[in-house]
Design a protein that fits this description.
The protein is of the alpha+beta class and 487 residues long. Helices cover 34% and strands 27% of the residues. The chain has two domains: 129 residues, Nucleic acid-binding proteins (OB fold (Dihydrolipoamide Acetyltransferase, E2P)), CATH 2.40.50; 258 residues, 2-Layer Sandwich (BirA Bifunctional Protein, domain 2). The strands form five sheets. Strands 8-12-13-20-19-18-17-16 form an eight-stranded mixed β-sheet, with helices on both faces. A five-stranded mixed barrel has the order 1-2-3-5-4. The structure holds one RNA strand of 77 nucleotides.
Length: 487
Amino acid sequence: MQARRIKLEKIKELGINPFPYSYDRSHTVEEVKEKFEKLLVAEISISIAGRIISLRLMGKAAFAHIQDEDATIQIYFKRDVLGDKLWKLAKLLDIGDIIGLKGTLFITRTGEKTLQADTLALLTKNLRPLPSVKEKEGQVWNKWADKEERYRQRTIDLIVNSDSRSVFVTRNKIIREIRNFFDNDKGFTEVVTPILQPLYGGASARPFTTHHHSLKRDLYLRIADELYLKRLIAGGFNRVYEMAKDFRNEGIDRMHSPEFTMLECYAAYEDYTFCMNLMEYLLERLAANVLDSNKLVWDGKDIDLTPPYPRLKMTDLIREKTGVEIINRDRDELSEEIKTLGIEVDPKWGTGKLIDVLFSEKVEPELIQPTFVIDYPVELSPLAKPHRDNPALVERFELFIGGHEIANSFSELNDPLEQRRRLEEQAKLRAAGDDEASPVDEDFLQALEIGMPPTAGLGMGIDRLVMLLTGCDSIRDVILFPTLREK
RNA sequence: GGGGGUGUAGCUCAGCCUGGUAGAGCACCGCCCUUUUAAGGCGAUGGCCGAAGGUUCGAAUCCUUCCACCCUCACCA
């Protein structure tokens, strides 16, 4: 670093500003690569800019590669073309510097497309050396691979690891595709609802708590958008969605991040079968437009996204995989039976929780191909509408792919009296020490009293979806700046 | 919280079993080199061996504790 400071001073002594204001590019490197033949034949003088990622200095000439977004190109400059002053500058360049070049194209003896520079401009001097990564024919030496450092120093990661950059480019593509799908194909309105909420709800999770000074009150970072989006449906919107961050104050692991991106959508006059169809359309479309294929590998498992996906009842799945019957069971009996399967059981758990644990232990990991698990016990779903054929169940589904939950949806409960009863039950659980149960949101109940039409709702974990479509096996690989322990 | 792994130069890693006072390649620095591409040649610099304690004449190496990260199980949507 000291050496680069000295070079910086020498550059200033040459009368060159190492941090100029702008540079006039005629092409990006990607454009040059695309139109190379044409530009070569026409001998057109072009100007490009980028960061030096390799440098081979020889007495009176030099080769280097520069990187401009995803594209790299070789550049060549020699002393008798550049002149004395610029050659002095060239000798002071380092890997990591950002430069601009103007010149014409040619092909080297070894056949590499190259720009021969007539002039050279330093655009930004690098003062902190980058890790020295070398590459030949797809093989990489000295790869900068420490996962922790990659998460902590994403700037370097993005420069040095092209696969890291490409994950985030794909992430953006997926999100654009999703917006396009909801906005243009399905007629949804994108909305923005509060992140700072006086009460939290819409999921079972511990919230982050913060404090507003002039209001003199605590506020919570939202754990879900649900209760606000339903207010909008009650307010007369037919279809709304929000794709934004939720915050949950819980454990961090490869599938969970304390701040994560969630898409929630609500459609009036529809039920949960609408949402299953919606998910099938969406995934089919993402496969076609982002992956270019219906088949992918995630976590070592081959997955086929071709719809339709099986729609299997939770009760049937549990019976099939474990032999346990869960409908109309006495709590204690069920608990005993689950224990015999080798699952630890907390005596405080109710029937709903027991079923949930049994399901996640024994069934979830086996749902590799896309599968809708439908019709959950009512205890697990305080915001879902009772099943039209069986009051012990609700009309709810979760979509599992690769053994992980990707989406969660129900026919939304819109009976304000029933909703109040269920929320008060949650509040009791909360009072009894379950800090994941939600408090009663009177304002939300008031919206239901005004009247929310029959509605289908869906929540989708965007980070997990991106993991699936990019083959990443940790949520940190798809979040640019993941939450980490303090160093 | 349990189990496993890792921590040595800016980067990638060897050395640890079998203690003797730290090594390679690349990067960085100097010199040479006008079609190179993991450029090459010659030379130089670089480390509180994750932290603290212990055993020992002597510890990167053996022991204890701690810290961080990764994997895994548990907890957790």
